[in-house]
Specification:
The chain is mainly beta. It contains three helices and 25 strands.
Length: 334
C-alpha cells in the first residue's frame, strides 16, 4: 500500500473501473482486497462487533466480540454489496465480521532499551494494545490504552526488581509521563524517516472528497495513491489549496466539544494543512477508508500516512517533534 508507482503501473491501473477504484489502493501487487488469503493475520476489534455465519448482515448472527478482542484472521472475502466503498469481510474461527472496525495488527515483542537519549526517543507501539499507568503517591493508577501503530515520545527507561523494563511515555496533551511496558515499543530509526524524492520539483497532493482518495504527484506523474476518510459533514474538510505548514510525528488529538468528543493519543505522522487543525495523519481507530467519517481531518492508514509524511516538505528529523514551514508541499482539496 505504500510502494511507489512506476508510470507503467499507473497507466495500467487507470483502466480499472471506477467501482474498483472506490476501494482499491495502488499498486495491484499490494492490493489487500484480493479475495482469499488476508494481508494480515491478526486483528483488533475497535468496538464490540457481531459476527455471522456468512459475510453478510443478512446471515445468522452467531455472537459478538467485545472491544479490543484480538482475533486471528483466516480469510477475507467480498460480502454484501453494501457498503460499496468497503465490501470486505473477514473470517475468524467463530464466523464472519465486517472489516470496517477491525484494525490490522501484529504482536511484536521487542528488546527494550535501558538508555534513552536526552530529549527522548520516538517509538511506535508494536502490539495490539498496551496499558499505561500514571504514578501518583506511590501507586500506579491504571489509565488508558495505547494502540498498535500509534507513536509516542519515550523519555526514560527503568528496570523493576522482576527484570521488566518500563518506559516513561510522554503525553503531549496532558503534559504528563505515563508508565508502559518497554517491550511493547520499538524505536523509530532515522533511516525509515528518510525523505522520499527529496528536491523533486512540482510535488503536490490532491484530495478527492467525492472518491475519498488522495493522489501524490511529482509534476504531472502520479506516484502514490490511497483511500482516505475525510470529514463526515459537508465542509468539515474544507476545499481549497493549502500547503503542509507544519508536521509532527505524533500528536494527542482530542476534543471535549459536545457532539464532537474524541480522545486519541499518539496519532501518527501528522501533516497539518490549516491553522484550524485539519491534517493528513495515520489512523488506528477505524479501518473504514473510502467514506467520510472523520471530524475534518484526512484519515489514512498508518502506512500510507507515513509515506506521505516522508514524501512531503518540510522534512522532520527523527529527533525533532515539530517543524513548520511556509514552503511546504501543496495540497489541493476538491
Amino acid at each position: 500500500m505504500t510502494t511507489r508507482l512506476s508510470r507503467r503501473d499507473f497507466l495500467k491501473l487507470s483502466a480499472v473501473s471506477v467501482a474498483s477504484l472506490a476501494f482499491r489502493d495502488f499498486p495491484p501487487g499490494n492490493d489487500p482486497y484480493n479475495k482469499g488469503a488476508p494481508p494480515f493475520t491478526l486483528g483488533r476489534t475497535i468496538y464490540s462487533l457481531r459476527y455471522y455465519d456468512r459475510p453478510s448482515t443478512q446471515g445468522q448472527e452467531l455472537g459478538f466480540y467485545v472491544t479490543d478482542t484480538v482475533i486471528q484472521i483466516l480469510e477475507q472475502a467480498l460480502g454484501d454489496p453494501e457498503p460499496v466503498h468497503n465490501p470486505i469481510w473477514l473470517r475468524t474461527k467463530d464466523g464472519w465480521l465486517h472489516s470496517a472496525y477491525v484494525q490490522p495488527v501484529r504482536n511484536q515483542i521487542n528488546e527494550p532499551l535501558l538508555s534513552i537519549p536526552n530529549g527522548g526517543l520516538l517509538m511506535e507501539v508494536t502490539v495490539p494494545f498496551t496499558q499505561v499507568y500514571l504514578p501518583k503517591e506511590g501507586i500506579w493508577q491504571r489509565k488508558h490504552r495505547l494502540y498498535y501503530a500509534s507513536t509516542h515520545w519515550v523519555h526514560y527507561a527503568f528496570k523493576l526488581d522482576n527484570g521488566d523494563v518500563w518506559y516513561q511515555v510522554y503525553d503531549d496533551r496532558a503534559g504528563v509521563h505515563y508508565f508502559a511496558k518497554g517491550e511493547h515499543f520499538r524505536p523509530i530509526t532515522a533511516e525509515e524517516l528518510s525523505p522520499i524524492s527529496p528536491g523533486v520539483p512540482g510535488k503536490r497532493i490532491e484530495v478527492d472528497l467525492n472518491r475519498q482518495r488522495i493522489i501524490a504527484f511529482e509534476g504531472s506523474q502520479p506516484v502514490f495513491t490511497a483511500r482516505t476518510a475525510t470529514g463526515y459533514f459537508p465542509g468539515d474538510t474544507p476545499q481549497g489549496e493549502y500547503r503542509v505548514e507544519r508536521k509532527q510525528p505524533t500528536r494527542h488529538m482530542a476534543s471535549d466539544l459536545e457532539g464532537n468528543e474524541f480522545d486519541l493519543p499518539g496519532v501518527p505522522w501528522v501533516c497539518y494543512i490549516a491553522w484550524t487543525g485539519v491534517s493528513l495523519h495515520g489512523t488506528y481507530w477505524h479501518n473504514n477508508y473510502g467514506t467520510p467519517q472523520s471530524h475534518g481531518c484526512i484519515n489514512l492508514s498508518p502506512e500510507a500516512a507515513k509515506w506521505i509524511y516522508r514524501w512531503t516538505d518540510p522534512y522532520v528529523p527523527v529527533d525533532e517533534d515539530f517543524v513548520a514551514s511556509d514552503e511546504g508541499t501543496r495540497v489541493i482539496v476538491y
